[in-house]
């Protein structure tokens, strides 16, 4: 089915985006995507996809709590930090 194909492609593309090239980010983002992404609500999935479009330095700052995450990412960042 065409819808399943595009969904599969989207998942592969998003999985690739979780590989950031910074070990610290890879350790947090890849397991979250692999184990918990599918259980997120549609709204949370959209938020995660937007988060993956952010710059690595910003993601790192937010995930290590060096800088407070923007409010629209706060709950998602907290979920990622809970680890699978």
If you had to describe this structure to a student in words, what would you say it looks like?
It is a single chain. The protein is mainly alpha-helical. The protein has one domain (2-82): Flavinator of succinate dehydrogenase (DNA polymerase, domain 1). Helix content is 68%, strand content 0%. It contains 5 helices and no strands. The chain has helices at residues 2-17, 23-36, 42-51, 56-63, 74-82. The N and C termini lie far apart (31 Å). The mean pLDDT is 90.
State the end-to-end distance: 31 Å
Q: Biggest β-sheet, characterized?
A: none
Number of strands: 0
The succession of helices and strands, N to C, reads HHHHH
Count of individual domains = 1
Estimate percent helicity: 55-70%
Q: What value does the average pLDDT take?
A: 90
Q: What does the radius of gyration come to?
A: 13 Å
- Number of DSSP helical runs: 5
Structure class: mainly alpha
Mind telling me the CATH superfamily name?
Answer: Flavinator of succinate dehydrogenase
CATH architecture: Orthogonal Bundle
CATH class: Mainly Alpha
Which percent band covers the strand fraction? under 5%
CATH fold call:
DNA polymerase, domain 1
Q: What shape does the CA trace take?
A: globular
Enumerate the spans where pLDDT stays under 50 for 5 or more consecutive residues: none
